[in-house]
Amino acid sequence: MPEIIAEKLSIGYRREKPILQNIFFRIQKGLHILLGANGSGKTTLLKTIAGLINPLEGRVLINNFEPYKLKRKEAAKYIAYTWQNPYYGFVEARVIDEIKFILRTTGARGNWEIVEKLVPRELYEKNPYMLSGGEAKRVSIASVLVGDQDIWLLDEPFNDLDYEGTVSLLEIIREARRRGKLVIVSTHQVPLMDQLKPDKYLLITRKGELIVNDWHRLSDDELVNAGVLARSMICGGYR
């Protein structure tokens, strides 16, 4: 069963004040939502869990190993991290090669259903860097999740997606949860996440604390106090 454990974890960047200090949590398979104001440390926390940044103190355990001690291609077999800015992760000159890159790296067979739901075939021969923001987001997400890893860390995955792309990604996340994956989604879109009925939320407060609790206990007061728009302040949304 996929599992993430944080023990006495402090995160941030060297020579700077820690963003989060001495945090503890343990989450297992299911869907969990990471919330917090801009600049609160959501991306830094995800990168630390993914092994892209070393902890300042403490440790993260992914299925009992510390991801930042593994080589990137080894960690990529178990952990999928999608970039908030899709262009950061591109390494190939054609979309189809970008999608296949992680499969060549990890030796995975790949889950091509994810690619089919997100990436139109007419994009396959295009240069990823020449795509629009929404197209690049689709390719960026698909090129990571095609690896079918057990743990997904999605950093603001719905940003730049149109309605169709959003619906497709919601379906992909639902299916991943059904298959027993551990999915963490960083987002500001609380009403959209309500549709998925997540298991837990991880909320970074203004004081730099991390609250972990069951999703149904998430209140508007907690959101406002953390600098996140409350449900009652947001109109519309995808239905």
3D architecture notes:
The protein has 239 residues and is an alpha/beta fold. It has one domain (30-40, 72-230): 3-Layer(aba) Sandwich (Rossmann fold). Helix content is 30%, strand content 23%. The chain has helices spanning 42-50, 72-75, 95-106, 112-118, 133-145, 163-178, 190-194, 220-225, and strands at residues 3-11, 20-28, 30-35, 57-62, 79-82, 151-155, 182-186, 200-204, 210-214. The strands form two sheets. It has a six-stranded mixed sheet with strand order 5-6-7-3-8-9, sandwiched between helices. A three-stranded antiparallel sheet has the order 2-1-4. Strand 6, helix 6 and strand 7 form a beta-alpha-beta unit. The chain is globular, with a radius of gyration of 17 Å. It starts with a strand and ends in a 14-residue tail after the last helix. The relative contact order is 0.19. This is ABC transporter related protein. Its main location: membrane.
